[in-house]
Design a protein that fits this description.
Structural class: alpha/beta
EC number: 2.5.1.19, 2.7.4.25
CATH topology of the largest domain: Rossmann fold
Bound molecules: adenosine-5'-diphosphate, deoxycytidine diphosphate
Subunit structure: Monomer.
Shape: elongated
Strand content: 15-25%
InterPro entries: Cytidylate_kin, Cytidylate_kinase_dom, Enolpyruvate_Tfrase_dom, Enolpyruvate_Tfrase_sf, EPSP_synthase, EPSP_synthase_CS, P-loop_NTPase, RNA3'P_cycl/enolpyr_Trfase_a/b
CATH superfamily of the largest domain: P-loop containing nucleotide triphosphate hydrolases
Family: Belongs to the EPSP synthase family. Belongs to the cytidylate kinase family. Type 1 subfamily.
Number of domains: 3
Number of helices: 22
Distance between the termini: 18 Å
Radius of gyration: 29 Å
Strand order of the largest sheet: 28-32-27-33-34
GO biological process, one term: amino acid biosynthetic process
Number of strands: 34
Length: 680
């Protein structure tokens, strides 16, 4: 997951390949609660690991459920041993539920029926999300729920219910604000239906029926057969009792699939690929959002599907504008809003009033961000109408505000396919953690763009000037990959020395062949492996640096390493540190920095660095070595160390590393097309 303040997506060109989707959030949290309420242990496969499931798991542990392992581990099932329909008398807890509506609503209902002493809390946005209709429904039954702040909204206090006054009358609940209220009741009321049936009556039109369908399907798996009377009345039969199904599998999120369905529809296919293949969800899905496929087809997508997969390619191009009632696909429909940017006319998405009370006011958010990209947008109480920019020149480079809303972040990533070739900035990219923590990694894995579109920031300079330190921090702030090219020469020196080769010009070809035959691996935590052996420390000695300087003078060695270095240029971008990044390896890089510092200063820093790593160091020897290394690196014939003509020079003798990093970030920001006010 990208934890940067913003993530810049370069202009993307094509898509193709296979993407495996994470488990559905709606199914994950429903299954967790149902398993927790049941008798027995439920082994859950493919549970989503996200903010929402984490708060749910934490809440269930507080209620006394046993959960093994403690947290979701990729590829491993998680086992939940339930409470068997009742809590020990006097159970008390304060549950923090973040911004997870899928935890707040059903847990409130279940705990209000079970009784105890609970406080239901969350983040400030949670306190703006209505829950009054659910509380009103539960009070009809005799549940004790009080508002701790504003009436109608969390936080809540839950006490011991008194069912004595309840006359068996149907429990009424509004269906036109959020179907999560009905879902919450459907999951909580079986706890009270051991002796007599309970009927729930929906007041007003029921929105988001597909989510109720998921709830009913899952209830059936846990032993509760609800009679659905035309989506108006739901009867939970007497004798209902939660029973674990033993094992259950969580389908992938059909709304997460929407971004990749849209991707297949709007991106040209990467040569050699036949569109985008999506694994984890297919045409037999129990999720309503799978009907996004029909909407995408109406816009021109070509879709094939099977039991657990979808295959999507570009069909009609440009896409066809549509006018669609989106009540059946409330979440996935946001993706249509961005697809509309690539359509041949004005698209209208109707019946989306529920967008206003989601993670943010999604109608307002979509309208604002689509306009930033150059679209003409009309918004109404329950619709949005989008006209794309008239031509490529009408597109604007935008910094997309994401409102702590995962879906805004994910759907706007698709704007990177704009015909103007503009990058798109996604602010606060980690908000995707709510449902799809590795969304951007998954996207980059199936997208392609010509190498020259992928930004590279080059940081060259002499030994000890601070290149490595500054480059690593700039890469971290931007979410870019990092190339420590010096490590390649250090490895070359190491393997040649180990092979008993003298580091002399007469051996240059043999050394070049030797390094070309090694299996090199650079891990995300900056370790370096050669044929599986971790050499991170072995290449950091001063001797290794000197040996690197020697082998780096051989043209054969330099050319053997060119391909390896170019391969680092991958989405979303690269920061490359070395001697010839800007002059030879990435001559067209959009930003080149030449970092210098006095020899005295560099020697002192290197001394401290070596000592802190527990490596031997001598100030005088270091000083002499640096001068020797500078001389060799600067005066060799092949790719000598010198500033590229278009490099910006930064004297790093006096300031802090942080100041140098900020200077590079400022230079980079100045070269970006985003408006200064929007810089992250
Ligand atoms: N202003 C500064 N910029 C960069 N590094 C600094 C600065 N001040 C002190 N240092 C320290 O100096 C050392 C620089 O070494 P390094 O980044 O490996 O340089 P290079 O990659 O250019 O050889 C690090 O230990 C770093 O913590
Ligand atoms: N792009 C590069 C990077 C390093 N080299 C050579 C020259 C340097 O003396 C050695 C070691 O580089 P490295 O950046 O690891 O060394 P320092 O950390 O700056 O001391 O490799 C090179 O020739 N070209």
């Amino acid at each position: 997951m990208y934890r940067t303040a913003f993530l810049d997506l370069p202009a993307l060109a094509t898509a193709g390949g296979t993407v495996s989707l994470p488990g559905s959030k709606s199914i994950s949290n429903r299954v967790l609660l149902l398993a927790a309420l049941s008798q027995g242990t439920t082994t859950i496969q493919d549970l989503l690991d996200s903010d929402d499931t984490r708060v749910m798991l934490a809440g269930l542990k507080q209620l006394g459920c046993t959960i093994t392992p403690d947290a979701v581990t990729p590829g491993q099932p998680i086992a939940v041993t339930g409470i068997g329909g009742r809590l020990p008398a006097g159970t008390a807890a304060t549950l923090f539920l973040g911004n997870a509506g899928t935890a707040m609503r059903p847990l409130t209902a279940a705990l209000a029926v079970l009784g105890g002493n609970f406080e239901m809390t969350g983040v400030p946005r949670m306190y703006e999300r209505p829950i009054g209709d659910l509380v009103d429904a539960l009070r009809q039954l005799g549940c004790q729920i009080d508002y701790l702040k504003d009436a109608g909204f969390p936080p809540l206090k839950i006490g011991q219910p008194d069912f004595s006054a309840w006359s068996d009358a149907p429990i009424q609940v509004r269906g036109d604000v959020s179907s999560q209220f009905l879902t919450a009741l459907l999951m909580a009321l079986p706890l009270q239906a051991a002796d007599k049936a309970i009927t729930i009556e929906v007041v007003g039109e029921l929105i988001s029926k597909p989510y109720i369908h998921i709830t009913l399907e899952l209830l059936a798996r846990f032993g509760i057969q609800v009679h659905n009377e035309n989506w108006q009345r739901f009867v939970i039969p007497a004798g209902s009792r939660y029973q674990s199904p033993g094992a259950i599998h969580v389908e992938a999120d059909a709304s997460s699939a929407s971004y990749f369905i849209a991707l297949g529809a709007l991106a040209a296919a990467t040569p050699g690929q036949t569109g985008v293949r999506i694994l984890g969800v297919g045409k037999d899905s129990i999720q309503g959002d799978i009907r996004f496929v029909e909407a995408a087809q109406a816009m021109g997508a070509q879709v094939e599907s099977g039991p657990n997969w979808l295959q999507v390619g570009r069909g009609t191009w440009p896409l066809k504008a549509i006018d669609l009632d989106c009540n059946h696909i409330p979440d996935a429909a946001m993706t249509l809003g961005v697809m509309a940017l690539y359509a041949d006319g004005t698209t209208t998405l109707r019946n989306i009033a529920s967008w206003r009370v989601k993670e943010t006011d999604r109608i307002a958010a979509m309208a604002c961000e689509l306009r930033k990209l150059g679209a003409t947008v009309e918004e109404g109480a329950d619709y949005i109408r989008i006209t794309p920019p008239a031509s490529a020149t009408g597109w604007k480079a935008a910094s997309i505000h994401t409102y702590d809303d995962h879906r805004v972040a994910m759907c706007f990533a698709l704007a990177a396919f704009n015909p103007a070739g503009l990058p798109v900035r996604i602010e606060d990219p980690q908000c995707v953690g709510k449902t799809f923590p590795d969304f951007f990694e998954s996207l980059f894995a199936v997208c392609d763009t010509p190498a020259q579109q992928i930004p590279v920031i080059c940081i060259d300079g002499p030994s000890g000037s601070g290149k490595g330190t500054v480059a690593a921090q700039v890469a971290e702030r931007l979410g870019y990959r990092l190339l420590d090219s010096g490590a390649l020469y250090r490895i070359t020196g190491l393997v040649a020395t180990r092979a008993g080769m003298a580091l002399e010009a007469t051996n240059a070809e043999r050394i070049a062949a030797l390094i070309a035959a090694q299996q090199l691996e650079f891990t995300s935590d900056q370790r370096v492996l050669v044929n599986g052996e971790d050499v991170s420390l072995a290449i950091r000695t001063e001797e290794a640096g000197m040996n690197a300087s020697k082998v780096s003078a051989f043209p054969a060695v330099r050319s053997a390493l060119v391909g390896v270095q170019h391969a680092f240029r991958a989405l979303p971008g690269l920061v490359a540190d070395g001697r010839d990044m800007g002059t030879v390896i990435f001559p067209h890089a959009p930003l080149k920095v030449y970092l210098t510092a006095s020899v005295q200063c560099r020697a002192e820093r290197r001394y401290k660095q070596l000592i802190s790593k527990g490596l031997p160091a001598n100030m005088q020897a270091l000083f002499a070595d640096l001068e020797a290394r500078d001389a060799r690196d600067m005066h060799r014939a092949a790719a000598p160390l010198k500033p590229a003509e278009d490099a910006l020079q930064l004297d790093n003798s006096t300031g802090t590393a942080e100041e140098a990093v900020q200077q590079v970030m400022d230079w980079w920001a100045a070269r970006q097309p985003f408006a200064p006010a929007a810089q992250g």
